[in-house]
Amino acid sequence: MRAHLDLQGKIMMPIHNGTFDLAFHAWYDPFEQITAQAKLNMVELTTPIMGQVITAQTKKVGNLWWRK
Predict the structure, then answer these.
(1) DSSP letters along the chain, please?
(2) What are phi and psi of 11, to 5 degrees?
(3) What is the mean pLDDT of residues 41-68?
(4) 59 confidence band (pLDDT: 50, 70, 90)
(5) pTM for this one?
(6) Beta-carbon neighbour count of residue 25 at 10 Å?
(7) Residues 17, 19, 22, 23, CA torsion sign
(8) Mean pLDDT across the stretch 38-53?
(9) What are the two backbone dihedrals, phi and then psi, of residue 22, each rounded to the nearest 5 degrees?
(10) Distance of CA 21 to the CA centre of its chain
(11) Assuming Cys at both sites, which of 9, 37, 47, 57 could form a disulfide with 4, CB separation 3.0 to 4.6 Å?
(12) pLDDT at 60
């Protein structure tokens, strides 16, 4: 989040998280944390489903899919 804010990014897309369940926390915890931080910092967040193809023209995707 700090890097996104410092660089004044437009839409944030978290990567390299939730792919493997190797940590002591739940695999979806990073998604929950970044969603909360995005809301707190008023950052537009996109969270495509793993493997979903998107382009620079793709509008915001993701709808808290990890909660389903």
Answers:
(1) -HHHHHTT-SEE---S-SSS--SSS-TTHHHHHHHHHHHHTT-EE--PPTT----TT------SGGG-
(2) -120, 130
(3) 88
(4) confident
(5) 0.83
(6) 10
(7) positive
(8) 92
(9) -110, -5
(10) 17
(11) 9
(12) 75
